[in-house]
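[09:14] KT: can someone run the structure on this one? pasting the chain below
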Amino acid sequence: LLIQLKRSGRGSSLEYKIIAEHMQDLGKRRFPEIARRMGITVEQVQKCANSIAQLEPRPGAIFAEAPRNYVVPDVTVEKINGEYQIILNGEQIPHLRISNTYKDIMSGDGSGSEVKDYIRDKIRSGKFLIKSIHQRQQTISNIAHEIVKRQREFLDQGSAHLKPMTMVQIADIVGVHETTVSRAISGKYMSTPQGVFEMKYFFTPGYQTSSGEAMSNTSVKEAILDLVKNETGKAPLSDKEIVEILSKRGIPIARRTVAKYRTELNILPSNMRRKY
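[09:31] RB: done, C-alpha cells below
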C-alpha cells in the first residue's frame, strides 16, 4: 500500500502516515483514536480511509491468471406458456449399451461354457450399471420437479422468497431415502430464471413467522442484508436492533443467530460500520 502511494506521488500524504503508523487501528476502524493521535478530525480520517480502500491490497494478483471455472447445469428450468418446464442435460451422461459382439459370442457354438458364463456375468453387470444411471437421472428429475413445485415464488421473485425445505421432505415424496437425495444432488447445478444454483442451495431450514408462514433462513439473511444496506452510516444497526426490527415483522430470531448470519454475509459489526 505504501509503495502504491509513493508511486502516485502521495508519499507525504495523510494516507501514507496512517498506513505507516496506525495500520492496526485502521484495520479495526478506530477512527477517533487515529484522529486524536494525529491531531486531525475524524472526518479527515474517514476521507483518508475511503481513499486507502481504493488501493489494491494484492497488487501481484494482476499478474496471476485467474482460474476459469465453468458450471454446466445438470437441470434447466424454463418458463414456457406460463408454466415452468424442467429439462435434464444429458450431455454429461455417457450413452451406454451392451455391444452386439458379446451377444454373438453367447449365441455362437465356438465358445465354451466357461467363456459364456464369464460374458453372461459381465453383461449382467453392464445392464445393472446402465439401469443405475437411468435411475439416478430419474431421481434427479423427480427432485427437480419437487423443487420447482415448492419454490415457485423463488423462481418468480428471487432468493428473498425461498421457502424452507428439507431433504427428508423431498425423500418422502420421491420415495427414496434421505441419503439418496443427498447423493443425487451432490455437485449438481440447476439453471433457473434467477441464475444458476447448486441444487443443495434449495434445501434450507427455516422459521415460522407470527402469521404462521414458513420462511427460509436464506430469506432471513436477505432481510438482514437489506436492513444493513439501508441503514444510516452514522448510526448503523446493532444486532439487538436488527432482532427487534425482525421481531416486529413477525420473524422470531435470536441475537446470536443474527450475529452468525451477519458473519456469513461478511457484514462487519455495527461499531466497524460506523461512518464519520
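[09:33] KT: thanks! Residues 2-63 form one domain.
[09:34] RB: yep, looked fine to me
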